[in-house]
Amino acid sequence: MSSYFPGGSGLGWQRSLDRIKRKLETLVASVWRVTLSRWFFVKRARNADVECATMRFVAANTSIPVPRVRFQFRWDDRTYIVMDRVRGRPLADIWRELPEAAKEIVVVRLAEYMKQLRSIPPPPGTSICSVLGGPVYCWRLNQWEPLTGPFRDEEHMNLQLRTLQPVDSCAEVVKTAHAKTHPLVFTHNDFVTRNIMAQEDGTITGIIDWECAGWFPAHWEYCKTMNWGNWHPQNREWYPWVHRFLPAYELEAEADRALLQQFFAPEFHAP
Fold it and tell me: CB of 169 within 8 A of CB of 148?
């Protein structure tokens, strides 16, 4: 019996379907570019339920400009979020060229946004977790399986950072820092210049990429911003401005650098 598909076999069927799929994807992409992409942005999401819930949570509880979520969908075993497109450019692309007056506008506004975010009271019994109460997405906490936690408390999270090693095996600064506890705050957890959209006059048009956000100890955003998120040399010009919008935790940041040197990032989950 002849077949419409080449070869008349299962392999031929698959190859033909793959070609049709590629052509369909190309067609959809072309139509998207010349029509809806002016108003909407589609993000392939690794943790879509949490990211959508987080953006809605932030929009409902602060005046921080976040993308408006329209809906999410699955295609070819991948999940995507459709959201309003944020105007402006990543701050990473324009920071060096901004005049000092515009930079001042940026950091003053970021300080206001961060204060709002950290002023949201955690629900009773909240652990270190996502806005939905489950795992958090953080490469610093687990480099191979970044969806990790939730953590019962700060001591549990510190154990993860030490890759399950006793604190006595670490530098003195780690021992001192890990003996402290900090209040729980809601934070972005990836607050770097590529996730801040702005215009050349210093107007912030949006804070994007909320997949890592959640309830964390108050020092954590500062540690990540200084030690993990801005590792590229071009971001070092950003360092002197960070303390203007984030409370500085120098001891904790130094301890985190010592842990990165000793263990780098964890590769498994603390039980």
Answer: no
Cα distances (Å, whole numbers) of residue 220 to 15, 66, 89, 196, 268: 49, 21, 26, 19, 20
Domains by residue range for the chain, with CATH: 6-84 (3.30.200), 89-263 (3.90.1200)
- Distance CA(60)–CA(248), nearest Å, equals 27
Q: Write out pLDDT tens, residues 226-246.
A: 988 656 666 778 889 999 999
pLDDT digits (tens, 9 = 90+) for 77-106: 888 999 999 999 999 999 999 999 999 999
Q: Are 97 and 108 a contacting pair, CB within 8 Å?
A: no
Average pLDDT, the chain: 87
Which residues lie below 8 Å from residue 234, measured CB to CB, with a gap of 6+?
Answer: 92, 96
Sequence-distant (≥ 6) Cβ neighbours of residue 122 within 8 angstroms: 184, 185, 186, 215
Give the span between the Cα atoms of 210 and 188, in whole angstroms: 6
Q: Residue 194: which residues within 8 A CB-CB, separation 6 or more?
A: 90, 91, 92, 209
Is the bond into 150 cis (omega within 30 degrees of 0)?
yes
